[in-house]
Known about the structure:
Number of strands: 3
Bound molecules: zinc ion
Distance between the termini: 40 Å
Amino acid sequence: MSGPKHERGPFYWxxxxxxxxxxxxxxxxxxxxxxxLWSDRHPASDDGRICLDAFAGEACLTCSSEEVDMxxxxxxxxxxxxxxxxxxxxxxxxxx
Length: 96
Ligand SMILES: [Zn+2]
Ligand SMILES: [Zn+2]
């Protein structure tokens, strides 16, 4: 095995996405208190600020970070790769 470990975790939309209903980041120079409140709900992540009120779901944090998009845990490419092949999983489409 090589490469980064794939971890499951909660994923939040970024603060500048349409999912954040708080509006744009206040000017902390002009409005420090407002910015403090805004900042509490929007901690910085590796990919910029996220909105804690815009929960996207359980994601693979590694895939999401690589794709710079929300990759659900179910769609993690590592997980997909280790899924059992034919015969192990019931497939309703084969019942003709
Ligand atoms: Zn927000
Ligand atoms: Zn992954």
